[in-house]
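Give me structure tokens for this 279-residue protein.
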Amino acid sequence: MHRIIEEDIRNICKEPLPWEELKKKKILVTGASGFLASYIVYTLMKCNFYYHLDMSLYVLCRNIKKAREKGILFGLSTGRDVNSIQTLLKDWHIDGLVDIIVGTGGGEIYDYKLDTYKEQYPLDGQLIQNIVEHYQDMKVNFAIPENGILYAPKDDELIQMLSKADHVPYKVVNYDEYLTKPKPKLIIVCQEDYMDQVIARSQTFHNDQFKSSSLKTASVLYEYMDPRVTKTAGLIEALKLHDIDIKDIVTFGDADNDYDMTLNAGVGVVMANGSEKTK
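Here you go.
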């Protein structure tokens, strides 16, 4: 920080203002990459330290690059696997701007700053086989995202639709051979008007040996994962690497699988087109 700005902020903090009124408050500053807003952010941070205010400060900005220059971490928390996200960053025009990826709904973490990768709580292959068998007579297909590829047991319009929509290639494999090892999660793909039947069928699935959880993640997608895999769990693991508490971050989400992180973040923002559950 420039010495003149540092001096300005020190002088502002010394002003006889009612700083105590900010004690333990949550403060959201928008447009934080701008000149005046960034002054406000720096001042509040300094006053929080000087006066032991124990307040929580959240900042929003449209310019990711400027925000990162100010020490703010930018991350993506998504149901896609880490590898496929990495291949899409350039298409999304944010290549080089992402610090952390929480992928596979919380089952994978990649930290660009620390060059660290971690995966947690995959589904057992036998469990996936049992789930597939449970839906075998229905008008669905299946996909397992791994290493930037969607692995499906058959080729049809459903897997083609998902591959095209997500810009991720797919590969047809023999699930009997493919599922000899645990996999991140299982996606069930169907037509939108068929989703109610998929959800109804999910309520009759049970496995005595393995635990799983499931939910609708899009109008045509229903997913199974380990019950411990959530975006909140993934974010907590990623934030530990930087000594950041989840209550000190802002999240943006729209789908049902964003519900838990929206609830647990310091500030959880739901998009206007978000699901009713997350709203």
